Amino acid sequence: MAMSSKHSSLALMRRAFWPALGLLVIGNFVGYAVLGENGVLAWGGYRHAKAEKAVELARLQAEEQRLAHRAALLDPRRTDPDLGDELVRRELGFVRPDEVILAMPDDGAAPQPAAQARH
3-state DSSP call for residue 39? Predict the structure, then answer.
């Protein structure tokens, strides 16, 4: 009987090997489908990243439109006089004798006359 119980357990293990291997392979695929890098649980992270990228894209498109408008104003055939005046004054520091300059701090504080700002 000892031989037949060994034989029957060995036969049982041989019969169960392929179904068990199949279950392991299927379980592996299911695990990756749920928990893997591109699995179901990663979709929430993808949605969050997509929302962040959409906000960044909108910001960059607005900046692109602003720069395109500014470039169009600098077209040599039809330069905007106000923008040209602004650039010449800012870049070259030209001031007419009858003008008063108010220095505007970058931090949003109240402006001060240039004479007071220098002291």
Answer: coil
Cβ-based neighbour number of residue 42 at 10 Å: 13
Q: Which residues contact 88 (CB under 8 A, 6 or more apart)?
A: 94
Residues 6+ away with beta carbon under 8 Å from 32: 39
Q: What angle do CA 48, 54, 58 make, to 5 degrees?
A: 150
Q: Which amino acid is at 107?
A: D
User: Taking the C-alpha atoms of 54, 56, 57 and 62 in order, what is their torsion angle to the nearest 10 degrees?
Assistant: 130
Task: Report how many domains make up the chain.
Answer: 1
When pLDDT is averaged across residues 106-111 and rounded to a whole number, the result is 62
**Residues whose CB falls within 8 Å of the CB of residue 41, separated by 6 or more in sequence, listed in order:** 34, 35
Domain that holds residue 90: 53-99
pLDDT in tens, 22-69: 999 999 999 888 888 888 888 888 888 999 999 999 999 999 999 998
